[in-house]
Design brief:
Elements: H1 2-9, H2 11-40, H3 47-65, H4 70-89
C-alpha cells in the first residue's frame, strides 16, 4: 500500500501514511493489552495483580503478533488441538 501511495502522492504522502500506520498499530496494541488485562482482572481486584496481568497481556500479544503468516500459526494451533484432544480423552 505504501508503494502505491508513493506513486500516487509522492514521498511526503507515503511518509505521512507510514506514520499513521504506526499510530494505528500502537493504539491497537494498547487496546489489546488493556482488554486482556481487564479480562484477567476478573480473577483478582488487587492493583499489583492488575500490573502483572498487564505485563502478561503484553507478552501474549507480542507472542501472537510475532507470526507474519498464517502458515506459521498452524503448528501452535495444531499442537493446542492435540493437547486438548489428549486431555479430554484422559
Amino acid at each position: 500500500m505504501l508503494i502505491s501511495l508513493k506513486v500516487v502522492g509522492g514521498p511526503i504522502i507515503r511518509e505521512i501514511t507510514g506514520a499513521l500506520f504506526i499510530v494505528a498499530y500502537v493504539l491497537l496494541t494498547g487496546s489489546g493489552i488493556l482488554g486482556v488485562s481487564i479480562a484477567f482482572n476478573v480473577f483478582s481486584g488487587h492493583a499489583v495483580c492488575t500490573n502483572w496481568f498487564s505485563f502478561v497481556a503484553m507478552i501474549l500479544i507480542i507472542a501472537a503478533a510475532s507470526f507474519r503468516k498464517m502458515s506459521q500459526v498452524s503448528w501452535p494451533l495444531s499442537a493446542r488441538s492435540w493437547l486438548i484432544y489428549l486431555v479430554e480423552r484422559a
